[in-house]
Amino acid sequence: MIDIMIDGLIGPTHHFGGLSFGNLASMDHKKQISNPKKAALEGLEKMKLVSDLGVKQFIMPPPKRPNISFLRQLGFRGRKQHLLKEVYKQSPQLLSVSCSASSMWAANAATITSSTDSLDGKLHITPSNLISNIHRSIEVESTKQYLKQLFPNKTLVYHHPELPMSLPDEGSANIIRLGGEKGLYLMVYGRSLLSHDQQKFPARQTLEATEAIIRNHRLNPDQFLVIQQHPESIDAGVFHNDVISMGLDNLLIIHEKAFIDQENVLSNIQKRYQELTKEPLDIIEIRSNQLSLKEAVTTYLFNSQLLKLVDGTIGMIAPKQCQINHRTFNLIEDIVKSKNRLVRCDYVSVKESMNNGGGPACLRLRATLTEPEYESVCSKYLLIEPLYEKLIKVIDNIYPDHVKIDSVLDKRFLSQVQMCENNIWALFRSLD
Ligand code: SUG
Q: Could you report the per-residue pLDDT of 24-69, keeping only the tens digit for each?
């Protein structure tokens, strides 16, 4: 099986809108000045590292922003410049929504399950509806188009439509696929639509959406477990499960406050994993006295990106914050030194994304493919050296490095954004 990573190239309107209630970093950085150039370069450096580690890395270009057709649907009229001024006058927040570069957090873009895990032997893809936040819900159309281009083979791949708008779905950020050729999926949800328990912060993934994905993707009944997130962690800022646990192959690293009834859930995961693979699962459970929920959220330790390396070992890409914080640094050292598959940790700075609540793992969507499926993927989006260099050049030369939401009202800024997008799209078109 071949693991591929799909990262969203960070767009030139990246800014701090404070748009995600319950995502503490997004709330804390509202209205601060952002640096899209730095953001895009940081993202690209991470992709380069993944590729240098021997893992296939694909890129999703950013959608056009501001999203004028969305604003027109809401009744705004006139030429672009005038229309944007009117939006700002009526609602600066709506302007921010229409300019959000949130498609960078590709882990939320879709759920992709492997053909070796489904009853019909197909690779299944469902783009997420992301309806918990307006700025994220407007990503769906472009994501859908991209995924159809990336996976064009209709015999091997089943493209589902996004789920109905009544079932909030946040994609693979709440799913861990353990195992090898046959995967065991931990399908995590935050709340059921039928329960009315009040929490401080909203739980984003719904049980009903998770169950619908399981049915639509025809997942083998032996290969998934449905698990509820701990409400205490959601209220501490764990708006997706990938902020509190991570796993790959035979390794699961998890904070003790990730799931409800965690002790039983972990022993069930262990049992099911062994039944499926005939091998034990390595579970590393981090206690609150080793790392508090608060520290887990500020360092994003559990949002490190795990990678299956060429020699079968596991590598980890952790946010720089985890190197600076002594507790997380020591925890990582211990894990790397102890006897398990994880043998190396690289630290990356993805600060611009982190300040909006997105760490290394949020920035990528993972798919596990068979050889023929991999051969059928559209290769122009594969990050290879010449593409990497061309992208660096575009970003270095023309990306803005200083953005606040009212920057969009400036004609020169708007043309700069357009130039960035046109250059990037032209670059990918030239690879056709
Ligand atoms: O949906 N932040 C994103 C971060 C997504 C992180 N993804 C995962 N954990 N997989 C979100 O909350 C902030 C945008 C702003 O405030 O401008 C934002 O959308």
A: 999 999 999 999 999 999 999 999 999 999 999 999 999 999 999 9
Strands (E), 299-378: 305-308, 314-319, 342-348, 364-369
Q: Which of 10, 32, 103, 105 to mutate to test the pocket of ligand 1 (most atoms within 8 A of CB)?
A: 105
Q: Check: CB of residue 65 under 8 Å from CB of residue 11.
A: yes
Whether the pLDDT of residue 406 is over 90: the answer is yes
Ligand 1 atom nearest 361 alpha carbon:
10
List the domain boundaries for the chain: 2-65+100-429
The tokens 């520290």 sit on which residue?
A: 295
Catalytic residues: 170, 240, 362
Please tell me if the CB atom of residue 23 comes closer than 6 angstroms to any atom of ligand 1: yes
The domain made up of 2-65+100-429 is a member of CATH 3.75.10.20? yes
- For residue 183, what are the β-bridge partners? 179
Q: What is the pLDDT of residues 276-285, one digit of tens each?
A: 999 999 999 9
- Ligand 1: which atom is nearest the Cα of residue 135? 19
Confidence of residue 198 (pLDDT cuts 50, 70, 90): confident
Burial tier of 397 (Cβ tally within 10 Å: 0-12, 13-18, 19+): exposed
